[in-house]
Amino acid sequence: MTDRARIFIVGTRAQLIKVAPVIVACERMELPLTLLMTGQHQETMLDLIEEFGIRSRPEPVLPVSERATVLSLVRWLPQAYLALARRLKQLKATGTELDVLVHGDTLSTLIGAVAGRRCRARLVHLESGLTSGRLFDPFPEEICRRIVFRMTDLAMCPNAEAASYMRKHHRRARVVDTGGNTIIDAVELTGAASVRPDADEPYVVASLHRFQNLYDGARLRALVALIEQVSAVLKVYFVLHPATRKRLRAEGLDERLKATPGVALSPRLGYGAFLRLAAGAACVLTDGGSNQEELAALGVPTIVMRERTERPDGLGANALMEADVPGGVLAFLQSAGHRALRRPANLSEGPGPSARIAAELIAQSRAPDC
């Protein structure tokens, strides 16, 4: 049995943040790897590679561009799949067996998994086994992850619950509980844990980009109205993803927010810069699963602006679901109820999940296909 080539497939900024510590751990252990970029996101991707100190040169399979609209994603999807399939076929032609590593639940995850299976690679799914239990919530992430679960050979699960789910429902996969989420390793690298909340000028950070929040006009207008109301109590830093910026413009809401004195609109920040901003906040309003995990590690009061989440991180401690906020978000912030949510930072002591994943890849590198 020969050693295997490890092919990481990454498309989005959030994916790169979570995969970066695994890549760094592999590089430290001198495991050769290839980093294929699908081009789903452009903004700050190269900055992230530099920020995390990744030595492997990223290889774009398509010209890089920001895919921030539904139409641009529809156009990109088949092109990205075909480009990935061609590149994996070329790598397979060298005679080396492939481990294709995909992460999470994005469209890049899905096409990477399908392309990997088509070229008879062993599919390794990072952050496997997470599920909301609702097929269309979040959309399309839950559909993507369920399809990928079925194709997974080696499931790297971030907690015991996810591992149990995979063992019960997808018995063909070899299941590994990595003992935590790789986001813990990413957060630790930023230095955000040392930032303290601003007691003199408390503020709120808002970060909203989920499909359900952006493409439901009534919901988006309600969120903007909430941000305006909150800004009368606490200054709000609204960090805009490219898709969020486009939808605000399309709904005619961007100028309205610009005219609101207590709201500061910000372009999407670098990873460390965003976490340091969030670490100093009185509270963060977010619909991002990765943000929920990061803020749980930092102990920052968090309101998850979604109906449900597949992630347990922070719930019952520093985080509340929007529907569970006593009296509603505005009243909760007005009463300073968020102060009781703050927790001390909870980061890894000793080897983190990323190092455990890299060690498992070494253990599996000379194993036969699952």
Task: Summarize this entry quickly.
The chain is α/β, with parallel strands linked by helices and 370 residues long.
Could you explain the architecture of this structure?
The model has no long low-confidence stretch (mean pLDDT 92). With 370 residues, the chain is α/β, with parallel strands linked by helices. It folds into 2 domains: 5-180 and 352-364, 3-Layer(aba) Sandwich (Rossmann fold), CATH 3.40.50; 189-341, Rossmann fold. Helix 5 (141-151) links the parallel strand 5 and strand 6. The strands form 2 sheets. The chain has a 7-stranded parallel β-sheet with strand order 3-2-1-4-5-6-7, sandwiched between helices. The chain is built from 15 helices and 13 strands. 43% of the residues lie in helices and 16% in strands.
CATH architecture name of the largest domain: 3-Layer(aba) Sandwich
Distance between the termini: 13 Å
The portion of residues forming beta strands comes to: 15-25%
CATH class of the largest domain: Alpha Beta
Average pLDDT, all residues? 92
Number of strands: 13
Q: Whole-number radius of gyration?
A: 20 Å
Q: How many strands, what sense, and barrel or not for the largest sheet? A: 7 strands, parallel
Going by CATH, the homologous superfamily of the largest domain would be: Glycogen Phosphorylase B
List the helices and strands and how they pair.
Elements: E1 5-10, H1 13-28, E2 33-37, H2 45-52, E3 58-60, H3 70-92, E4 98-103, H4 107-118, E5 122-126, H5 141-151, E6 154-157, H6 160-169, E7 174-177, H7 183-190, E8 203-207, H8 211-214, H9 217-231, E9 235-240, H10 242-250, H11 254-258, E10 263-267, H12 271-279, E11 283-286, H13 289-298, E12 302-304, E13 319-321, H14 329-334, H15 353-364
